[in-house]
Amino acid sequence: MAVGPGTLPEFFPIAGVRLGIGSAGIKKPGRKDLVVFELAPGSRVAGIFTRNQFCAAPVTVSRQHLAQGEPRYLLINTGNANAGTGERGMADALSCCQALADAAGVTASSVLPFSTGVIGEPLPVEKIVSALPAALANAGENHWADAAAGIMTTDTRPKGASVELDLEGHRVSISGISKGAGMIRPNMATMLGFIATDANIAPDLLAQLASELGEQSFNRITIDGDTSTNDACMLIASGQYDGPEITADSPLLPKLKEALRQVYLDLAHAIVRDGEGATKFVTIEVSQAANQQEALDVAYTVAHSPLVKTALFASDPNWGRILAAVGRAGVDGLDLGALEIYLGDVCLVRNGGRAEDYSEQRGQAVMDREEITIAIDLKRGDVNERVWTCDFSHDYVTINAEYRT
User: Can 156 be counted among the known catalytic residues?
Assistant: First the structure.
């Protein structure tokens, strides 16, 4: 169950980036569960990772390797998170890096590992190592769709975005894939996201873009309020296009940044649309807040409320649940008589109570939609924030109750 058609785009190949897909049989025999990104020499990589203190071994290793030199390969496995696995988990992640490095003729520190799946179980290193040769052998520039499927876990459909643009006569391509459907309240990014461009982006700027764009997209989505141990989102610039290096003061940057932003947003929204058991795609807008923190506190309190989320699933315009969530968001000195709450274009709350022109029929018409906006105008300042979430359905409970069976 998911919201919207969810069809993959036509992916534009990224010069200098090849993708290989393998089947290690980590959780299910024959399933595509291994993806390798091969990056041309000179490619630049920046990333953001989970802030969960129980971060997975591959997160630790990827951070270390990213700081040590020039990444040449990304290795992603599904079916096993290699998280909560202690020293053995670190050794297993490093063993997989070494195996790929030996097969590709590079150093182990040039391999960045990523894992997603069940927490607390040892990584099946032998299965992964055995599947590496086939994944390397089939690497190609046009395998983005297969890679999008290869990084799925409880996702019901692959997720991708791709754009092509002209920067003053220089053609630039951007393609990306992401995965995630549950354990999603990224405190950095999505569970896994990979965006690549053939533009030549200065290293400092690349790191800035990875952080800023991740904050505006993946860090504004939530399915269930749980931050994964394995979150990672990487931005790759192969530098293979025929234009100049793009720096912070480059006239080419604004157009490129906007295109990257759209790819990030599309990938983040795709996760919400495919949230475990989701039937609604919900935008929560908080306007006129005194500061960013209170805007996000209000947005996330509404987004995480089980009562709000179950009302959304039932298409029940029980607006009192939204009002209650706003009231417990911890905003000091909230002026109840000034704020307004809207469901779509229907005002629910005004002057401290139900809006005089509200009717159940009008509220129901909005709640019957697949895509809904809840807008809260705090009337306190000039800060606006937006968060995306989904509803809670029976299927969410079933999926997570049966996750390991």
Answer: no
